[in-house]
Amino acid sequence: MFEAQMQDGKIFKAIIEAIKDLVQDCNLDCSEEEVAIQSMDSAHVSLVAVRLSAGGFSNYRCDRPNSLGINTANMSKILKMLGKDDSITFKAEDESPDNLTMLFEGGKTTIADFDLKLMDIEAEQLGIPDTPYQCTVQMNADEFQRIVRDLQVLGDTCTISCGKEGIRFSVTGNIGNGNILIRSNDEQNEKDRVTITMDEPVELNFALRYLNFFTKATPLSSSVIISMSPDVPVVVEYPIEDFGHIKFYLAPKIEED
Amino acid sequence: MFEAQMQDGKIFKAIIEAIKDLVQDCNLDCSEEEVAIQSMDSAHVSLVAVRLSAGGFSNYRCDRPNSLGINTANMSKILKMLGKDDSITFKAEDESPDNLTMLFEGGKTTIADFDLKLMDIEAEQLGIPDTPYQCTVQMNADEFQRIVRDLQVLGDTCTISCGKEGIRFSVTGNIGNGNILIRSNDEQNEKDRVTITMDEPVELNFALRYLNFFTKATPLSSSVIISMSPDVPVVVEYPIEDFGHIKFYLAPKIEED
DNA sequence: AACTGGACCA
DNA sequence: TGGTCCAGTT
Fold first, then answer.
1. Which of A58, A106, A124, B4 could tie A83 with a disulfide, CB 3.0–4.6 Å?
2. Cα A43 to Cα A206: distance, rounded to the nearest angstrom
3. What is residue A106's predicted lDDT score, i.e. its pLDDT?
4. How do the domains of chain B map onto residue ranges?
5. What's the CA gap between A181 and A160, in Å, rounded?
6. Domain A135-250 belongs to what topology?
7. For residue B38, is pLDDT > 90?
8. Under CATH, which number does the domain A2-117 receive?
9. Does B178 contact A81 at a Cβ distance shorter than 8 Å?
10. Residue A93 pLDDT level (bands cut at 50, 70, 90)
11. CB A103 within 8 A of CB A113
């Protein structure tokens, strides 16, 4: 038996909205410690990893590790029916369940329950090396979203350079070039603070198209954490309060000479 | 001579908006007691019945019963010009009038009047049995609208089950199943109150497409009254304060075996 | 599917 | 008056 209640259901809704453009089908990997999602996007370019630790749920029980294969578009359709302040209770059988049952509870009078048909999804095992990164930047998530959206009008590829003084986003395109520099600072209010932790400067190129997909997770977090090392995928992480995080991985473009 | 003034013209506008997707042409049946509309929808699947009692109008005079055949789309176009707080005064001749004249009066300075061309519409007489129903549920109209809209993503057919404890809306579809249960209650504020009056439980299937058409009448009323008996059409009624009601009838789908 | 404008609600 | 939600549009 798997059963877990999330008080603030819109967190789960936001997660599904954040990944559904990248990932068609994925497993909810439920264990005693967490509900996790790990999946390459449909084009096998980027990777999504979600962690919802058991401690964030108000009730959590998972007798046996289990993978629940969902179609994200269908899940999204059902979550459209989630009320403003509804909680979600997830339920599934232990042995190869056919359905994931979700209870939406809000006002006292209304209870909605939905069965989402599950599917078998082969779990490609994805080794994510947990190595330290050469540069890590924490900044406002809305600002990151705006930068990535804005720069897309100039070109497809964004150069992200991280040094002590700050992080720079640069695009070279037909109509012109652009540079946005975010300076490291120590603002009073956490929202505007920009924190940089680094050993050596790093400069890497990325496809703006994918960075834009990642920023669909912006509603989940006030800040975003960008981690880079030479020649390895960048990590774009949105912490999810009480639960864990959603992380996106994207390999750098190789410099064309 | 027929002449009637409706202080709050947007009630009539809302009625036309509510029925114009179902009914192309219909008669305004004017008598000493009321203005009534009765019509099957174009596909002859459902039935609309409106009653506006003479008492709701601020001036009412109907010398002779008369049927004014209108095209709802054209009526809607004229009503688009109704001002925010305008009253409407309807005027028509007794003997087979060619036009229905409508006066829109709001601020003291502006008066608009429009003549809508009338047409002859054969009045198919529609016997609506006025039998008591086995289950009657009164609930919030907005909530009913939301449920019917939401469930449409899961499938075409909705099972409505009414029992003592509440009313349940269920849909079975390809991507999964859904159940929304509204519990009978005795809320303080009338808006959230759910009242169930019943002899025996009833369970019937309906086309969500039509239930959705009916909810176009939601702006007319804070609550909706759903009445069901086995094997007869459901009645979805929106009371219209001071005037009467708009009722929709829809035959249940026969269980496929 | 994303964006937009419009409507309703707080 | 601003925010949110929904429907229509590209």
1. A106
2. 15
3. 84
4. 2-117, 135-250
5. 10
6. Proliferating Cell Nuclear Antigen (3.70.10)
7. yes
8. 3.10.150.10
9. yes
10. very high
11. yes
